[in-house]
Amino acid sequence: MATQGAEVLVASNRGPVSYTVGPDGELGSRRGGGGLVSGLSAIGPDTDAVWVCAALGDGDREAVRRADGGLLPAEDTGGQRVRMLDIDADVYADAYNGIANSALWFVHHMMYQTPLEPVFDAEFRRQWDAYRAYNQAFAEALAEEAGQGAAVLIQDYHLALAPRMLRKLRPDLRIGHFSHTPWAPPDYFRLLPDDIAAELLTGILGADRAAFLTRRWADAFTDCCHAVLGPGIPSGTEIGVHGLGADAEFLRERAHRADVDERMAVLREQIGEGRRSIVRVDRTELSKNIVRGLLAYRRLLEDHPEWRERVVHVAFAYPSRQDLALYRSYMDEVRRVAEEINSEYGTADWTPVLLHLDDDFARSLAAYRLADVALVNPIRDGMNLVAKEVPVVSDEGVALVLSREAGAYEELAEHAITVNPYDVVGTAEALHEALTLPTPTRAERSKHLADAATALPPAKWFLDQLNALRG
After folding, report:
1. Torsion on CA atoms 437, 439, 442, 445, rounded to nearest 10
2. I need a labelling partner for 24 at 20 to 30 A (CA). Which of 86, 250, 287, 330 fits?
3. How confident is the model over 430-455, as a mean pLDDT?
């Protein structure tokens, strides 16, 4: 058992830095952002902290080989101590793509086409062994890095088994697990083989504290424990809720830099003088429901011809998981439907859908600032920060059309126009309602949305969990 080591540890699949190898063999590093980066920096430089993550590609693996004991150079990580794990590439692929993204993600987002899938066969069991090995690697690294009685915050569905594994190695630690996705209700969760459903639940219950983005997801987890493990469980594991908010200070500062202003000028020209804008910004993730959003926009143009040539749908659908054939097909369908709408309704000086498939954060912020309406219609989403970010950044106020299946619904529904994400006709009518809101009403609603969206910024979200874990 370690007697010296870090006081606070974070474990996640993706770390705060990624690497590429140049033609000359030189390593290039790129730091990431997000709630965990903000949160870990909030604990202060005097706290001995370590972030444990996986090497995601060849550049990361080369960085680990060159690193001292797997700890990356401080100049690459913003001064944070980061231990990156060089897990065998085949094991990683089976754990990440085979189990985490092709099984657990689909279960929690309730996305299976059940007449044909899932099929939990021998290949699935082989991949499950890789998922176990991946989690075990994290548990062992955390056990090595943690000081006596340290607080460990393990993140998400990639690492559902790690809390129990770590508990066996280091019973002295305070262990927390946080789920960033929804949690499936018992009837759907039990699509999983009984033994694996139980293993996932008991894995998380190895933590002192299991936390979720909304009360709905927390209650679903507890219901699954009762259904699969018995009515007295969870016992000994505290269940918490922490709704991650937008980082207002960062967003507002970043949204007013010169590169954003330049992109706003381009977008305004593309939209056209005097036209309204319906904006969506998403990864091309199956759960984001981009295709139905496009179909709802087409329905709007059909049912309300007065909006033709008066509104543009600005749709940013950035690549996601393009190593999976299903995601590539989905992106193709997004492109096809957008082109179909433009072909059907477009005129010489009006392009109904402005579709961009390449990631550009500055352009996203520009779209946030000028949006009249924001469309956020996921079929299921743990939280959805876009719904929170747009009102925070909006220049003149934005009307939010929000799916009732987004975690953000719990906090934002009162001042949003809410929709059933499967109802294309209903979503079209919600878009019409949003476009016709009087300007003062829209601005007032937007202000309330921004206030709710920033109630628990990333640093506070992280510290609240850490303080609750330390008890």
Report:
1. -130
2. 86
3. 97
